[in-house]
Amino acid sequence: MGPGTLNDSGTPEFLLLGLWAPPSLSPLLWVSLLLAYLATVLGNGALVGLIALDRRLHRPMYRLLTHLALLDTAYVSTTLPQALAHMTMHHARLSLARCGAQLYVGISLGSCEAILLAAMALDRCLAVCKPLHYATLVTVPRCAALAGASWTLGFVLSVPNAVAALRLPFCPGRPAVDHFFCELPAVLRTACADTTANYRLVYGLGVPILLVPFALILASYTWILTAVCKLPSAGSRRKALSTCSSHLAVVGLFYGTVSAMYLRPRASTALPARHHKLVAVFYLVVTPVLNPLIYSLRNRDVHLAAQYVLARLRGVCTGLH
Q1: Spatial separation of the C-alpha atoms in residues 161 and 214, rounded to whole Å
Q2: Nearest 5 degrees, angle CA 241-CA 243-CA 245?
Q3: How confident is the model at residue 1 (pLDDT cuts 50, 70, 90)?
Q4: What does the alpha-carbon distance between residue 249 and residue 294 come to, in Å, rounded to a whole number?
Q5: Across all residues in the chain, what is the average pLDDT?
Q6: 44 vs 243: CA distance, rounded Å
Q7: Residue (of 140, 154, 110, 102) closest to 262 by Cα position
Q8: H/E element holding 22?
């Protein structure tokens, strides 16, 4: 059986049921999501701009942070603008090709982020535990290789799940995906076939994509805590831990939501769709907005870079007048 009904051009289509809100609250929900999207793009864009403009931030930690900001911006841009557009339509339809592309890019970017967070943990571990050798161990080429490996592995390891999901047969008529984008579990729930093998593939690939990076993060922070406990003063211990607090907060947000989306027991898919959508909204909307704030609010280097860039802009504006 094919993947759904055919439109006028003969292309299979999915029907996205989208986000639901009472009619009186729909405009408020739409505006809130739009503001969240703009905050994500502007916040992460400002962070990338500061890192690019201030030489003091041309260090491995901030180079990796640039990739994290780009990942967050790309991920939210593949889903939220479409969701906002669909909220203004009576029927939100998506072709098989567009649904497949969104599904693949979405899980790829999430996989890239998991691996990148492990690379960032390794960077912090070497900075705290091997400070005298850090500059020679973490060079610019090695940092670029870590970031490149994160992107490459994320997109390569996501191919089997995407292909397996899109080869499933779907029910006659236009398959209704009870979600606001083509998320992998939502598409699997739409299939008119036994998806046991697909869930096994999700859990199987979850080991190299999520659990191995998480194990590396735990190992890195175990090593960090061991090194910090050996420091002579409370001030030096606080300073060492403060360099890791932002990364730990981002790791907690990421793994808390991703585990709820992709590593939950299969029986939990029987939960109402609104629960799945709520987790997705938190991951897609809340986390990308918070990440630049987490890395900026208590980061002295970022504050100094912002003051430097603002001073340069004031100088440029003064020169124009």
Answers
A1: 20
A2: 70
A3: very low
A4: 8
A5: 86
A6: 20
A7: 110
A8: none
User: H or E segment at 312?
Assistant: helix 300-320
* DSSP 8-state symbol, 296: H
DSSP helix/strand/coil, 202? helix
The answer to whether 82 and 181 have CB atoms below 8 angstroms apart is yes
pLDDT tens per residue, range 232-246: 877 777 877 777 888
Most confidently predicted of 10-24, 134-148, 298-312: 134-148
CA distance 274 to 64: 34
Choice between 273 and 27, residue whose per-residue pLDDT is larger? 27
Q: Tens of pLDDT along 4-43?
A: 444 444 456 888 888 877 778 889 999 999 999 999 999 9
Tokens read off for 61: 């930690």
* Alpha-carbon separation of residue 165 from 20, 105, 161, 170, 185 (angstroms): 25, 14, 6, 10, 9
Can you list the pairs that 224-230 forms with residues at least 24 positions away whose Cβ atoms lie under 8 Å?
224/124, 224/125, 224/128, 224/129, 227/128, 227/129, 228/128
Going through the chain in order, the beta strands assigned E by DSSP cover 13-16, 92-95, 176-177
The overall longest dimension of the chain from CA atoms, in Å, is 73
Beta bridge partners of 279: none
β-pairing verdict for 176-177 and 92-95: unpaired
**pTM for the structure as a whole:** 0.89
Report helix, strand or coil for 191.
strand
Alpha helix segments (H runs only) across 17-139: 26-53, 60-77, 80-86, 96-129, 134-137
